[in-house]
Amino acid sequence: MVYTLVCTLYTLDDPKSIQTVKNKLIEASRIYSQDKETLSWLVMQDVKDPRMFKVVERYQEEGSQKYHLANPYQKTFDPFVMPFLAKPIEVLRHEELDTSKDVEVA
Q1: What is the pTM of this model?
Q2: N or C: which end of the chain has fewer CB within 10 A?
């Protein structure tokens, strides 16, 4: 079962904060996407509110997150972005549904 995290980052209301977080997320995606058992590490910016960013982290299973947490880059990410955020990072955890088989919809 694919284990997925959806994280929301909301920056301070200034262009420097927005651009700094945007660049850091791009850098993070390029690094974390290469972690073992990471299926994808996607970053997005809201189309109406440039201060809002989403990160979708997809792992083979919940235990796969250990490789992400062991990455030395992980220890630098939060301390770097926190001063540019208006509120704490929101993290939602999900298991993706298996869509490989037909189902009957009543």
Answers
A1: 0.92
A2: C
